From TrEMBL:
InterPro entries: ClpP/crotonase-like_dom_sf, PDZ, PDZ_6, PDZ_sf, Peptidase_S41A, Tail-specific_protease. SUPFAM superfamilies: ClpP/crotonase (SSF52096), PDZ domain-like (SSF50156). The lineage of its organism: Bacteria, Pseudomonadati, Bacteroidota, Cytophagia, Cytophagales. Keywords: Hydrolase, Protease, Serine protease. It comes from the Bacteria. Gene3D superfamilies: 2-enoyl-CoA Hydratase, Chain A, domain 1, 2.30.42.10, 3.30.750.44. This is S41 family peptidase. Residues 87-158 form the PDZ domain. Belongs to the peptidase S41A family. It comes from Hymenobacter aranciens.
Amino acid sequence: MTIRKKLLTGLVLGSAALVSFRAASDSERYFEIAKNLDIFATLFKEVNTYYVDEVTPAKLVKTGIDAMLKSLDPYTNYIPEDDIEDFRTLTTGQYGGIGAVVVKRNGKTVVQSAYEGYPAQKAGLLPGDEILDINGVVVDKKSNSDISKLLKGQANSVVKLMVTRYGQDKPVQIDITRDKIQVENVPYTGMISNEVGYFQLGGFTVDAGKEVRAAVTKLKEQGAKKIVFDIRDNPGGLLNEAVNISNLFVDKGLDVVSTKGKVTEWNKTYKALDAPLDTQIPIAIITSNRSASASEIVSGVLQDYDRAVLVGERTFGKGLVQATRPLSYNSQLKVTTAKYYIPSGRCIQEIDYSHRAEDGTLGKFPDSLRTAFKTQAGRTVYDGGGVAPDVEVAEREIADITRVLLQKSYLFDYATRFRSEHSSIPPAKEFKLSEVEYQKFVTYLQGKNINYSTDAEKALTDLSKKVKDEKHYDDVKLELEAMRKKMTTNKANDLQRFKPEIKELLEQEIASRYYFEKGRTEAGFDDDPNIIAAVAVLNDPNRYAALLKPTGQAASARKSAGTK
């Protein structure tokens, strides 16, 4: 036998052995699946028959499915038929309803906001209104989910609300004709200054790309020569919309994102297929540690092509792709099928869900194992931990007093009261509370429960306990009491000490009563440290250009913007 024949024979025998091994391996795997499904079915039958209390089959099985999927990752979920409508709302941004956010607050069902131009707002429903019943159904003991279902319904159907309103003696009935509600991906578009435009991207549902195109086009028509693109807290959404949005700012034909998973036939590289909208206008993208998934694709793509300067915080670090698969009885499975890779070649997935510690905990991708990649211009970027900003702006920590005012809804309630007593205010960008008005708010808080413990007080309490345990309390008793009195005195002045941040949030809340969520956004333009930092970068062409160059040239520009 010739060497060639021997080689061919060896390859054939090796291939046959490989096929045989794979067949055996697949056969064993299928047997394991069938075996464990049979165990699950017989176990369920025995529990259903003999368990001491009645069990709800659907609830019990869903608990088992949820626990099983939880062991994989948080994004692989079972969607039963009853939840399909909510899932469609998340992916399409559409539902039939009144266009309002209603929440449980201090035991009451309160309108938090009404979308401008939608049925609730047109019918006169106001933030702060308390809903007593919906179509005759009393809601005081209903959950947020139950209330949402009562408010949603077919377009053109009528829902009757009985509400109480601050400043009115008796409840009033408000009839609202439901409509098709389309939650906007771009909730705000406007000018910060004569040359700087600004828009927010809140989601990636259907037509997000078209909305961003319209927003940028509108801003340029209004004179924008620079753009602030706010993608903070955006949880992501449809992959193709992330591709569409990226395509607006990078040249046709460039790679945008690649997906790679176990089913190799599904692996794909998505390219910019269309002519871009604008590849030159300076862009500052604001990110936060809650910017995830599709929002990380967009920010990462524009960073990899040196197309925008990123300002803010490192993003969440979700580099996973999900697909939905149909199941029986109109249910669905949302399953993680791949990881995605942005143009530099990096995957920004931070948490490794495939390897858990013995106690079940998960670890983040360690900095020591992160790999360096290069942007188109040669800047160094890293994988495994989200998308890092070019200009870091630390998240502001609010004071304890401010946190209490927010948690107990005192800012919200005072804004409701203010709206009933003032028919109008200046434009949101110009609106400022006077010193007299702020003191009225301080007076309003008298008698309210605003007790709280500062970190220093907690530390002092721990210290007191420790010295008591060690029998040294009498030695330092006077000093500890003096410190406690001093802290109590300081707390009494917190409404004045932290007046700037309290006043800022109160102004935003009041502005939203007159100009809706757009008013809240505009009222914060001059106080938001991220927007201030983004505008500063855009207004300094030399620094902007330096930030988009490799390390060394950009070192002096890539410094923390700090906080205001």
